[in-house]
Amino acid sequence: xxxxxxxxxxxxxxxxxxxxxxxxxxxxxxxxxxxxxxxxxxxxxxxxxxxxxxxxxxxxxxxxxxxxxxxxxxxxxxxxxxxxxxxxxxxxxxxxxxxxxxxxxxxxxxxxxxxxxxxxxxxxxxxxxxxxxxxxxxxxxxxxxxxxxxxxxxxxxxxxxxxxxxxxxxxxxxxxxxxxxxxxxxxxxxxxxxxxxxxxxxxxxxxxxxxxxxxxxxxxxxxxxxxx
Length: 228
Fold this sequence. Notes:
eight-stranded mixed beta sheet; about 45% strand; 3 helices; mainly beta; three-stranded mixed beta sheet
C-alpha cells in the first residue's frame, strides 16, 4: 500500500444526528504517516475549500452510510461535514480556528480519563523510582505501589530473537493508583523518539494486543515482567 497520511475527527451523522468518530487514509498530501485533525495546517497553497475525503462512511450508531468532507480555511482543517451540510456551506464566510485545537482537546480528555499517551518526555536515568513515591503523568498525581521491568526472554537461538531484540524498548512499568483507580504506567525509551510515558488501565497483563481493549497494558513481544 505504501506511505500515506491519516485524517481523523468527528462528524454529525445526517440520519440519526449523532456525533461519531471517523478515521481515513489519504495519499493526497505528503504521505509521511502523519495524523491530522481539526486545527492542523495541512492543505498546500493556503487553500480555502471543502472537498470529499470519504464516501459512504457508515454511522457506528444507526449504520446508515453518508459522505464525509473536509473543510479548509487558508490551509487549516477547521471542520468535517456530512453530505447534507456540504450543500449549505460557504467556506468564504468561515475563519481559522485555534491551531492544534483537536490535539489539545484530545489530550485534555486523556487527562480526565487518566489513560493514554502522555506529552511528558522522560530521562530514564531518573528511573526507576521507589515504591511509595509519586509520579505525575497526564496531569494526574499517582502513588507508585509496585515496580516492574520488562526483560527480553526470547531464546537467542529462536528465529524471532533478532526481531524482538531490534524492537525492544528499555524502560520500567509502575503499578499506580489515585482517585481514578489503579493503572499501569510504562516509561520507556521508545524507538526513534525521546522517552515518554504511557498510562494503561489495570485490567491484567496481556501478551497479545486486543483491539477490543486497546488501553490495556501489553507486555512487549518476547518479554516477561519482573518485579523489582
